[in-house]
Description:
By secondary structure, the protein is an alpha/beta fold. 37% of the residues lie in helices and 23% in strands. The strands form eight sheets. Strands 17-20-21-14-13-23-24 form a seven-stranded mixed beta sheet, with helices on both faces. The radius of gyration is 23 Å and the shape is globular.
Amino acid sequence: MLSELSFASHPxxxxxxxxxxxxxxxxxxxxxxxxxxDIRNPFxxxxxxxxxxxxxxQVNEAIHxxxxxxxxxxxxxxxxxxxxxxxxxxxxxxxxxxxxxxxVMEVGKPRRLAEQEVNRCIDTFxxxxxxxxxxxxxxxxxxxxxxxxxxxxxxxxxxxxxIFGITPFNFPLNLMAHKVAPxxxxxxxxxxxxxxxxxxxxxxxxxxxxxxxxPDGSVNVLPMRHRDISVLLQNDAIKMLSFTGSxxxxxxxxxxxxxQKVTLELGGNAGVxxxxxxxxxxxxxxxxxxxxxxxxxxxxxxxxxxxxxxxCDDFLALLTQETKLLNSGNPYHDDVTVGPVIHKxxxxxxxxxxxxxxxxxxxxxxxxxxxxxxxGLLISPTILTxxxxxxxxxxxxxxxxxxxxxxxxxxxxxxxxINTSEFGLQASIFSHDTRIIQQAIxxxxxxxxxxxxxxxxxxxxxxxxGIKNSGMGREGIHSAMLEMSLEKMIVTRQS
Length: 495
């Protein structure tokens, strides 16, 4: 058993007996070192669970386990991998309530957003099953050049080997799925280090995967200390690091992982342009949700909005109106959209950034304070104008329910302002002028551009990743499968 108690049965706003969750190693729950992690609800601070911590012995056991799984997983027919991935999707549906409750409790994610994440996780494994059936190399027309006449060629895609994945707190279920599902679809075992304050959902998902019919060791989940990460990265058996998290940690890990292939999905600082031809009502509604849902704790949440000066006042009024309709409070409640931030250090940092901006001349339109609810980690949705690009609310990833609104003369200036950021993950533009849209597509420097929707749009199958300080490589099911596989060229000389 993963835990001796039911995590989903805890009543809200009470201090239940906290279940203890063990490591998931080689298809079973295992003990870790003597220490453990406390998992507390960000809204009310109640202890909801404890999890085991892996030490160096358990890390080495996980590597050995993955080595055992690799030949069996790599040799599985595509149909069996697809069947296993569909089994996972089915088991996720059966565990739906448990998983939703877990996300609400350990992440502080509003219930309806937690439901969305579980549904997206199901979609991820379902789509990965279809990709597993057809993933292969390609025919290479060697006789297209005279040197290749008399030869036939094709490429194969083969598993890269054992993958080490590190996942963040904000989407602990689906971002783990975005590493695990393509790894299993390709035939790679994967070791996951989940965020320390949201490890329970990862451990539940590992249990479900083991029940779906994959070989023991296909997925091992180890909450661990940061200093033990080097044990994995120094081992020649680890062939790839897939990291999602902060830029500082990601680039530091890349320096350690000099033997491995590395993909990094790092921070963002999403810029948006709202043109004078845009549907302002739609833009305001979509951007309010993007900026403030789940307290803005997404790397593609709208952060900097540049609006054509002719419509900026009208847009600002609409955005303020839409923001006031969003309920902040207890994430257990179905009508709540803005829940707590993850911990006190985050809340303190956010409030300091807001105060610094105001001291520097920014105008506070809405919010800017903590709400006296729960543990006090609720930051009211905050809109700032009259900001400078050098302010932290503009220059850094705020990862908070904070958005800035600035008037600009035209799309050229907006693009220049958007591109000042060191990040380049996703941006968006609201316009019905095709020339302006094409200019944005060709000149905005980021990994993805969303037209007439918020920059936080993401679907499971789309290539996803950034440039500049936002990382390298791409996620999204097929894109991740390409990253997690090697291409082998086969050439046959015709007789």
